């Protein structure tokens, strides 16, 4: 593949300065990664000159420039660097078997690069004061050769999920040289000490049980972020294990319930992958060939990671992560879909540095993924100080369509499908299958090969391509078969729905007919009631009297008299009150007069007495 940038071409100042390190890495099988990418800059470590080399990857491939900047450290590390790692805050980590150094990268070309003697961890809420300070630098202690030979030293680690609780922390999975995996937790709130005080769980059990105990060695480990932490473990014999880190159910006691952050975790191995370490036919590879594999995460997609080893570069993608995420988001599904087990990982052989089993290993010394359009680009630095650029697949899709009877789409998945422009059709998947994946670049393979070995290599490559093409055809056949089965199931479901709809239509027609009869009866009854109401209103209207002009004038006069009565009623009430008052006053006066008359009245004679007096007087005169 032609170089995309000027500094990737042979003879550029960037590669010339790196080539000054000589051939010290060509005979070494130790894994190294001396390049890294941050923002739009690719940096490489030069061990001989003890400095960093930086190039701008944002320049267009058409620009005829070879800009290479040399970054000097104020205090270079005293140990040999075999790993370069950069974070988002422009800090570079230089690590080796004898120490660790943190370097602050410049944000402008004129800035200085300073080496920090300590690694500080800050909180977002309090960015001024560090919460954790870890001294770093060259280690002068005695090396644990015996422990290393027995596999009792850690060879790799990676961070997992953040745990919730009173003391939030983040999981740390640690891989030992013996292949055992341990789990611990770290938090910014921990004490500022170089001694780890949290509990270490492990070695974690691996399920299901295997006869080979999943190997007796381990070399590298990465934790892929998903709904459940997925660990990829690499051994020294070209084998990869994909595991799910699941919490183990247990009956918690009162004391155990207080330790919410330290649950029992087990590793469930759901896939084992054996990498092809040469282009030789299957079975020709020596099983005793030791090939340490170093794993790198792909920053452009969470589904993929890169494998670097003595035989070249592989890329491994896990579509299982997307399906697992959909399963976790679907709250209604309670059973793991069966199609997840039939969706293996996708392994791409990108670079081959060891074509034949008899060839000596050529371990790449640098691997970096550069975000680019239309897809990411893998930059590989070989031990012969050559740069290879390889275009990576931008996205992965499952080639096996999901059956409708297995796990129908949930509400969230249906919303997600409706939000997209539309799922790719069958022809797109077939083209993607038949188009294949990039052919591995053969680098540093023909230097020590005889003509007979080259012929064998040609036959092996032809046979390999033939097998891959047959596998693609079989995959297309399987894809078409599953699509046909899916279409048949969809047809059956649609026919069932159609029959149900026809039954519902017939039922609705019957209900419509019954409602129509009821409506007609109600309409007839309503018409009768309306006629009766009209007759009643007509009779009432006829009974209403019609007034003549005299009656109307009399009615007007009566209204006027009523108004006058209303006006005179207050005066009448006042007159009545005065009359009652006068009557009460006159009655009092009569009582007083009668009393006085009774007192002054003299005694009077009765009629009998008057007759007696008359008789007496008459007799006297006689």
Automatic annotation (TrEMBL):
Residues 581-622 are annotated as: Disordered. GO terms for molecular function: structural constituent of nuclear pore. Residues 484-525 form a coiled coil. Keywords: Coiled coil, mRNA transport, Nuclear pore complex, Nucleus, Protein transport, Translocation, Transport. The keyword Ribonucleoprotein does not apply. The keyword Endoplasmic reticulum does not apply. Residues 611-622 have a biased composition (Basic and acidic residues). GO terms for biological process: mRNA export from nucleus; protein import into nucleus; ribosomal large subunit export from nucleus; ribosomal small subunit export from nucleus. Pfam families: Nup88. Residues 599-610 have a biased composition (Polar residues). Transmembrane segments: none annotated. GO terms for cellular component: nuclear pore. InterPro entries: Nucleoporin_Nup88, NUP88/NUP82. It is found in: Nucleus, Nuclear pore complex. This is Nuclear pore complex protein Nup88, putative.
